[in-house]
Amino acid sequence: MNEITLDRPISASGRKLQRRGEESRRKILDATLVLIARLGLHGVTHRAIAAEAGVPLSLTTYFFSGMNDLIGQAFDHFVQVAAPDNGALRHQLSEYLDGFSAEQLLHDPAIRQQVCAHVTSLLADFVQDQTASQSVGLAVGLNFMTQYRLDPPLRAKVVSYRASLVAGITELAGRVGSAQPETDASLVLGVIHRVQFECINLPTAKPENLLQAEIGRMLALVFRLV
């Protein structure tokens, strides 16, 4: 008896269709994020997404079971795009702290002042760079993080994403002697999000010295310098 197998190789035409499908799906996710940045979560419609993506309206329901599913997968897409930048910043901060001993970070006043100033500068530069080159991504992230009416599965994803951001800051806060690392991390993240909101919404750019002053004040509390 001949052996029956269901794992047949995909033909060249099949692979081409598969690539086209993935491209269309990616366009829909990208368009959804652009519209969320422009209109907010509750201003997004299937028709608007199709028009922005340049795809047939039917594809917005072919690839996704409904609007909640589409928005949820768009958030997953956003996290994948944002993760490298967030990871790079965390690595840069951690690598900088590795240049000092635990004794210096915890007990040397001059070193602690120096580290606080440097971390302030890194965070301010990060916010300014994102504002200049990734304003859509910032707007998308803030929409998800501040929206109070979320579908429960999406809310769980957003809470998990925020927790991952807080965890990264918590680790760094603990290394510099914060008495309450997780609380301080949550406060620092809140300040960063507020500054990001102002940077993409105010009619004029926030002056660099004011940006650094606000972030620096928050970090000075974490470092127990005030």
Automatic annotation (TrEMBL):
Residues 45-64 bind DNA. The keyword Nuclease does not apply. Transmembrane segments: none annotated. Keywords: DNA-binding. It holds the Pfam family TetR_N. PROSITE patterns: HTH_TETR_2. Residues 22-82 form the HTH tetR-type domain. One of its GO terms (molecular function) is DNA-binding transcription factor activity. InterPro entries: Homeodomain-like_sf, HTH-type_TetR-like_transc_reg, HTH_TetR. This is TetR/AcrR family transcriptional regulator.
